[in-house]
Amino acid sequence: MADTRLPNDQTDDAQGISWRVKLVVALMIVLAVGVVLVTNRWLTERFSETTRNRADLRLALYSGNMISELQRTSVVPLLLSTDPAFGEALRQGNFSQTSQRLIKVQSEIGVASIMLMDRDGRVVGATNRNLLGTLYRTESFYVDALRAKDTIFTAARRGTAGFDFTYSRSIIVDGRPVGVIAVAVDLMKYERAWAGFQDAVLVTDSEGTVILATEPRWRGLPLAEALAVREERSAIGRALQATADWAQNPPDAYLAGQAVMKTEARVPFRGWRMVTFTAYDSVRERVNGVLALEIMGFAILLALTFYALSRKAWSQSMSFRRESAELRLLNARLQREIAEREKVQKDLAVAELTLAQSSKLAALGEMSAAVSHELNQPLAAMKTYLAGARLLLQRRRPEEALSSFQRIDDLIERMGAITRQLKSYARKGGEAFEPVDMRQALSSALSMMEPQLKARVVKITRTLPRQPVMVMADRIRLEQVIINLLRNALDATKDRQGPQIDLILSQGDTAMLMVRDNGHGIADLDNLFEPFYTTKKPGEGVGLGLAISSGIVGDLGGRLTARNAEGGGAVFEMQLPLMGPIKEQEAAE
């Protein structure tokens, strides 16, 4: 009985151990699958978000570099069109030194190429001497430049090699166009720079046509057609693609049959848009590295379990050593990837800080110039009132001196309002709009200018309607525009005998204020409203008054124009939209 029972007990023990081993193994496999699935989903979302953020930053850098190049090149035609040497060469037909001069300008500024064309569209000067004598009379960059007074930008298709981007401007001599200066923008260099990265990059115009792309076959095609899959994948290929994408988020798009992450942004230039496509390879590699560590850990745990439940200690020990070695290799690889990622993030952070600092310096310069200009008028008035108050106190007339001090206090309050309103010059208005009677605004501006008007003998005539002329505007900024116009009129009549300024306010379809003087007139109407353009001596003005005034009137929904009056003098006309009937009724109540 005992002999027969022992083998049965051993058999039962063996069966129990086998059942427990199978149960433990099954539980560990289920646990491993669950942990791997959850970890994969979480890490995929996290690394995908990191990759997308880096793609967004690269997109911003790409766009910023391209806009900087366009803006830098757009100034060149304006500078060259005002060069008297080119105008004189076109007028006399002597172009012996023209090409050499253009080559010198190109080397100094660093543009792609420059061409000078005469009235017939023939190239008479060029940095590429092979183009001399070529006719461009039918090209859009030539025809549009002759028709317009401003700089014209043109993007023309160049066969299958891409697009030519050109800034052109007509050269005016004695009031008529005598030729065109054309400057090419080299945007192809950015295509070559983008091609050095893993991202696929393209730029479309306002009509959705691809004009720049790292893939040459995309140029000139609509975006949807350029991104279409060119070849039908087989059933095996689709199965392999589904297997590769099983563990990642749904892709934004498929590029040549490969799942990619799409990043898109608007380029602040003529409705252009920039699109980048980033492959999921880096995300998949990083996720797979972590998953490999997890799988390796479960494998080690499973090996240890087999070692504890079985008697094959030596084989389990060897397997553990081999797996430990592989784990160390994977760990070293992950450490290298982490170090590379930290280095890239530091470089991107430095680039972002540099861009932010540049923006701050530019904004600081603009605000300093604006503050200096806007506060000159109140400071001059305060100086006059202080001198008057001092004389009144010396003559023992304190009541009249107190009146001057009250005016100084009002000016200080106005200076505070101006500094609070200066920030609105850099954005669209509308936050402080209120119903304003332009007659009262004109009266307030004249009161502000009272010290300057008393210092000189100037005849001022006012023609105002009897009924209110109501507009929706920022009162402080509207008065500032009127003060700037009055101040310019006073400066223009400084050297005139019998100076006179006419102020005419009327309303029809719009409210219009006309400021007319009998001064020397305006020599350069085209550049009158450009920032920092001034005909005054150094120290008397910085050339921001009319530029700021034009911007303010534009924010109020109107326009500011200037012309020379018949018989001499200048005329400035400010037109603003009138209030609607509902708003007028509310203002009256």
Automatic annotation (TrEMBL):
SMART domains on file: HATPase_c, HisKA
Transmembrane segments: 23-43, 290-309
E.C. numbers: 2.7.13.3
Pfam families according to UniProt: HATPase_c, HisKA
Intracellular or extracellular location(s): Cell inner membrane
Principal location: membrane
Reaction(s) this enzyme catalyzes, per UniProt: ATP + protein L-histidine = ADP + protein N-phospho-L-histidine
Histidine kinase domain boundaries: 370-580
Keywords on record: ATP-binding, Cell inner membrane, Cell membrane, Coiled coil, Kinase, Membrane, Nucleotide-binding, Phosphoprotein, Transferase, Transmembrane, Transmembrane helix, Two-component regulatory system
Superkingdom of the source species: Bacteria
The keyword Kinase appears for this protein: yes
Coiled coil segments of this chain: 322-354
Any one annotated GO CC term: plasma membrane
Keyword Lyase appears in the UniProt entry: no
Membrane topology reported for the UniProt record: Multi-pass membrane protein
Function of the molecule: Member of the two-component regulatory system DctB/DctD involved in the transport of C4-dicarboxylates. DctB functions as a membrane-associated protein kinase that phosphorylates DctD in response to environmental signals.
Protein name: C4-dicarboxylate transport sensor protein DctB
Species whose genome carries this gene: Pseudotabrizicola algicola
Biological classification of the source: Bacteria, Pseudomonadati, Pseudomonadota, Alphaproteobacteria, Rhodobacterales
